[in-house]
């Protein structure tokens, strides 16, 4: 079985070289770029000529475009700040020699400021093209599959939140989409106590439930940042609701 690797990018000149280098096992690499203004495109051209532009911040749309452009029967999705280890690459190649499922879920290890986060995410990233119904959701996108889903053993590495400036820039961008989605779903009017509730919930989830406290200062910064991020989303929603009225 041949594999198409699909990478989403937006101003990823620092992360992209390592990401694309780790995909040497794929039969083709497809880059879906979201209007990068740095050296992302010139870096991508060193690894592939299959680079496509996508306007607007819609991650499902970007992933579905990648599926449309892929020529092989299996798809592997990767973000530019993620890396495939040698062991995971070998496992994927071995799995595709005799695939038993329509798609495969894998563990993603997140690293904040270089430290591994205590909890692990599970994500579907390897899938048979003709069994993928599509990706849904503009921001927190998920694939809808036909057939059963297996589990890979080796993890994917995700190096996110490496500096405060990039974190704030990303939050400002994503919170706009989050606020619009809540507005379109007719979210109840934002009143003062709701800010405290969502911020405390976000902090508790990150610092206590996900055991961020185990990382000391890094865990505290990340957990406070999650509270800040949800505050910005709800502040923008409040602003949009008042403009609407």
From TrEMBL:
Residues 4-131 form the Glycosyltransferase 2-like domain. Gene3D superfamilies: Spore Coat Polysaccharide Biosynthesis Protein SpsA, Chain A (3.90.550.10). Coiled coil: none annotated. InterPro entries: Glyco_trans_2-like, Nucleotide-diphossugar_trans. PANTHER family: GLYCOSYLTRANSFERASE (PTHR43630:SF2), POLY-BETA-1,6-N-ACETYL-D-GLUCOSAMINE SYNTHASE (PTHR43630). This is Glycosyltransferase 2-like domain-containing protein. Transmembrane segments: none annotated. It comes from Candidatus Gottesmanbacteria bacterium RBG_16_38_7b.
């Amino acid at each position: 079985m041949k594999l198409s690797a699909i990478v989403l990018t937006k101003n990823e000149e620092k992360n992209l070289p390592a990401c694309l280098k780790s995909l040497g096992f794929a039969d083709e690499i497809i880059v879906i770029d979201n209007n990068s203004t740095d050296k992302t495109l010139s870096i991508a051209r060193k690894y592939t000529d299959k680079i496509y532009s996508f306007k607007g911040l819609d991650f499902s749309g970007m992933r579905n475009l990648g599926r449309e452009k892929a020529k092989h029967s299996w798809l592997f999705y990767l973000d530019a700040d993620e890396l495939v280890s040698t062991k995971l690459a070998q496992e994927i190649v071995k799995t595709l020699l005799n695939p038993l499922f329509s798609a495969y879920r894998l563990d993603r290890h997140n690293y904040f400021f270089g430290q591994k986060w205590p909890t692990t995410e599970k994500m579907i990233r390897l899938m048979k093209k003709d069994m993928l119904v599509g990706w849904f959701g503009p921001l927190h996108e998920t694939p809808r599959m036909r057939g059963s889903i297996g589990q890979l053993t080796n993890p994917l590495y995700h190096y996110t939140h490496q500096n405060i400036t990039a974190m704030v820039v990303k939050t400002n961008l994503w919170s706009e989409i989050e606020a619009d989605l809540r507005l379109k779903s007719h979210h109840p009017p934002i009143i003062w106590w709701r800010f405290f509730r969502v911020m405390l919930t976000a902090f508790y989830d990150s610092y206590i439930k996900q055991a961020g406290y185990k990382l000391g200062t890094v865990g505290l910064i990340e957990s406070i940042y999650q509270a800040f991020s949800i505050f910005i989303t709800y502040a923008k929603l409040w602003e949009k609701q008042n403009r609407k009225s």
